[in-house]
Design brief:
Shape: globular
Structural class: mainly beta
Largest sheet: 19 strands, mixed
Low-confidence stretches: 1-27
Strand content: 25-35%
């Protein structure tokens, strides 16, 4: 199957705030309360509706909003009020955005603003699941053009989730230690910060496409203390820093150790848009307990890295020494990019091979690693690893990241995991399960 990108179709607007395009006048509609700064909504947004959102969207505590397939939410880039506070989707209750492959749900901006030039402009805030949000499912959704600066008056700053002036909105945030969160079958693209930032909760992050996440920093998937998650089957293309940031930062007596399995993901072009020695593909730190296996890293700036501290099992130092970061495939094309700033590498094979202070001797001992003069090609069905700019962040829909028959990445993936949610995580009325680990590298096997 070729790479698929979902696009929101422009629709005719019927009012300044909410368009209800459903023909079923007897169907239950959302319960809405409109203030100068907020649209407070619970109930159901029906298939075919288009929402013009020019103020903060709030799902109130104790209530739920279900969004049906094909709904488009067009978020204003003008902000809210005289200070132009970036529009935020504040999930204080529960959110179930349940699209389909043919009819995804799209969180976007006006069609005139959907340009490459705006990829990292951060035109609106993001989706923030507050501590009172116990459940959120994002299934077949598109989230794009987020990552605005958090400022004075931003709801997340008022709530103490982010710091005004210092933080930029991730595209999706979670913050409930006992919450249940699913992000699956979705496209998270063109954001100035992280794709998803989990500060708490149980999570399944599977079968997604992350594209162009982060401008001056940021990862596709960023997990912190208080999280237990399975991350599998995802494509991460051109994250600014890493595809996976796995850190037990914030661990305490009440906020437990980060527990994460990351397997069968494909990470391409990671780290090249980040100046200096940071970035690469995977970073594990601060006592995180992880399994990072059977992943395919293609043209990334560095290999999987850990802190320079040699002593693990400390919340301010290395990773939990029961972690396994191994049996991964590091592919490199022949192309280079100019060395800028503090960086010392201009080619993936150079980055994989250099004596980096953050390369632990206990990491990737069985992995397949390209080196200068011995470049490894995974064998994609239709993607030339030698022909794509290392700093490029735009996906060509004709690319196919399945593996061709006889591909090198079909063998040697001998990692193993016991998924946290192999038997399921029930969110709303649906039980989601983490996929079984596959004995090939990356997100996609042979067609």
């Amino acid at each position: 199957m070729k790479f698929k990108i979902f696009y929101a179709a422009a629709a005719v607007m019927c009012s300044s705030l909410l368009v209800a395009c459903s023909d079923d006048n007897d169907a239950p509609k959302a319960d809405e309360e409109i203030t100068e700064t907020e649209m407070i909504v619970s109930g159901v947004w029906k298939s075919g509706e288009t929402i013009q959102l020019d103020r903060h969207l709030v799902v109130p505590e104790g209530k739920s909003l279900t969004i049906e397939p094909g709904v488009t939410i067009i978020v204003s880039d003008k902000g809210v009020g005289v200070n132009h506070v970036p529009v935020e989707i504040s999930v204080k209750g529960n959110l179930y955005a349940l699209g389909t492959e043919k009819n995804p749900i799209t969180f976007t901006v006006d069609p005139s603003l959907r340009t490459d030039a705006n990829a990292f402009k951060g035109l609106w805030g993001g989706i923030v699941a507050y501590e009172s949000c116990s459940e959120m499912a994002l299934d077949h959704v598109v989230i794009e053009y987020t990552g605005a600066q958090v400022i004075e008056g931003s709801p997340a700053a008022i709530a103490g989730i982010y710091t005004a002036g210092d933080d930029m909105y991730p595209q999706v945030t979670t913050n409930n230690l006992s919450g249940k969160y699913v992000l699956t079958n979705s496209v998270i693209r063109n954001g100035a910060s992280d794709g998803i930032y989990m500060m708490g909760g149980n999570g399944i992050i599977t079968n997604n496409v992350f594209v162009a996440n982060g401008y001056t920093g940021g990862e596709a998937v960023n997990l912190k203390a208080g999280v237990k998650a399975d991350v599998a089957g995802n494509l991460m293309f051109s994250p600014n820093t890493n595809g996976l940031k796995l850190s037990s930062s914030g661990q305490s007596e009440t906020r437990g150790q980060l527990l994460a399995n990351a397997y069968n993901n494909t990470i391409i072009n990671a780290g090249w848009r980040r100046d200096g020695e940071k970035g690469g593909c995977v970073y594990v730190e601060k006592n995180a307990l992880v399994n990072v296996v059977n992943n395919l890293m293609v043209n990334c700036k560095f290999r999987a890295m850990t802190p320079k501290y040699s002593d693990p099992n400390k919340s301010d130092a290395g990773y939990d020494d029961k972690s396994v970061i191994d049996y991964n495939f590091y592919a490199s094309g022949s192309q280079s990019t100019p060395i800028v700033g503090e960086s010392t590498v201009g080619n993936a094979a150079e980055g994989y091979s250099q004596k980096n202070k953050n390369y632990s001797p206990n990491v990737d001992t069985h992995s397949l690693i390209s080196e200068p003069g011995k470049l490894l090609d995974p064998g994609f069905a239709a993607f030339d690893i030698n022909a794509t700019s290392l700093t490029g962040y735009t996906l060509d829909p004709t690319w196919d990241f399945h593996l061709a028959s006889g591909a090198a990445a079909l063998s040697g993936a001998n990692g193993s995991v016991t998924s946290y949610f192999a038997t399921g995580l029930t969110v709303g009325e649906k039980t989601y399960t983490s996929p079984a680990i596959q004995k090939y590298f990356g997100a996609y096997g042979v067609k």
